[in-house]
Write a structure and sequence with these properties.
Length: about 140
């Protein structure tokens, strides 16, 4: 049961950090880009997807980041709290309810496309770096 509680603590702490980062970065981007489109949420989801791609590779290595608590802290806690699929869904619904169909569809396509690109790019780059340095197991 000790492993369960240490993993739970890792997720709790990571979630607090991820939520704070999401609030700060999303607000920063949205403040600079304007309120017409949910740029802040898109930026958070893309950067979070990129980070998850990197962490997924690191989780397969002999790195300290492959340890259960580290994965729970980084992937489940920070990234799970940092990325904002629920915000994405709510903002897309708001655009659709306001008959802003192009923006709603643009948000769906951009979010899914760029987040898939982000996770692939993070996975690819981390795989190349760790394969080149002999860090993959």
């Amino acid at each position: 049961m000790t492993g369960y509680f240490s993993n739970l603590l890792a997720v709790l702490v990571g979630s607090a950090i991820g939520g704070a980062l999401r609030y700060w970065i999303s607000g920063l981007v949205q403040g600079r880009m304007g309120e017409r489109f949910p740029w802040g949420t898109l930026a958070v989801n893309v950067t979070g997807s990129f980070l998850v791609g990197i962490l997924a590779v690191l989780a397969t290595t002999t790195s300290p980041l492959a340890v259960g608590e580290a994965q729970k802290f980084l992937i489940v806690g920070i990234c799970g709290s940092y990325t904002t699929v629920s915000s994405f869904a709510l903002q897309t619904l708001a655009l659709a309810r306001n008959a802003q169909w192009r923006s709603a569809l643009g948000n769906i396509v951009a979010s899914l496309g760029f987040c898939m690109l982000g996770v692939w790019l993070g996975f690819y780059l981390a795989g190349r770096v760790f394969a080149a340095t002999g860090g993959l197991s």
